[in-house]
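Is this the right way to post structure tokens for a design question? Let me know if I should format differently. Anyway, here goes:
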């Protein structure tokens, strides 16, 4: 009997982190305040329950500064992840498949990497090895993760065409391509 209980405990210790996600190593409080946050505001009367996605910016490879708010009119999938997170690694092929499926249909996929700045070269190598072709930006300081309350990863946010958060999903799901496709198709069909 003790052996069965021990086996069950070991299985639970392995399975729970895979499906629940990894905790972020950030020690600062998780808030939705700050200069980049617009939480509480809505821009689409069709879905007044949706909050405005906190805006953030990044620099493109050609030096142009882009903002999340520049992508209004498109559906955006944000993926908060890190190389040290096992469940994040498991989601990457699925996110890549979703990117390829929707990239020409008005959907933007942005991976937000939470590895610390000292690991930038390792992250670049990881992206190359895994064949990630969607946009990946660094959030080594955790600023964007804090704005979104991303306390565990992988964490996904679906942003509608009006820049509002339509849905948030945490953790790995082996059926995520099907689940995410339904959500993306629904958002694409909205005005």
């Amino acid at each position: 009997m003790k052996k069965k209980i021990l086996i069950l405990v070991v299985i639970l210790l392995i399975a729970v982190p895979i499906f629940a996600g990894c905790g972020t190593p950030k020690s600062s409080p998780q808030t939705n305040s700050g200069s980049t946050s617009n939480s509480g505001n809505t821009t689409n009367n069709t879905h007044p329950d949706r909050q405005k996605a906190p805006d953030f910016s990044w620099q493109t490879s050609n030096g142009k500064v882009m903002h999340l708010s520049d992508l209004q009119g498109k559906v955006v999938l944000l993926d908060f992840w890190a190389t040290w997170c096992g469940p994040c690694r498991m989601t990457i092929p699925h996110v890549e498949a979703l990117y390829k499926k929707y990239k020409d249909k008005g959907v933007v996929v942005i991976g937000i990497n939470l590895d610390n700045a000292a690991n930038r070269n390792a992250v670049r190598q990881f992206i190359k090895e895994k064949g990630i072709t969607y946009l990946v930006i660094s959030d080594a300081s955790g600023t964007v993760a804090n704005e979104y309350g991303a306390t565990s990863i992988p964490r996904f946010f679906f942003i509608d065409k009006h820049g509002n958060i339509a849905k948030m999903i945490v953790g790995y799901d082996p059926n995520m391509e099907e689940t995410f496709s339904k959500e993306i198709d629904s958002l694409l069909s909205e005005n």
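Format looks fine. Someone answered above. Worth noting: The first strand starts at residue 22 and ends at 23. Residues 98 and 177 are 7 Å apart (CA to CA).
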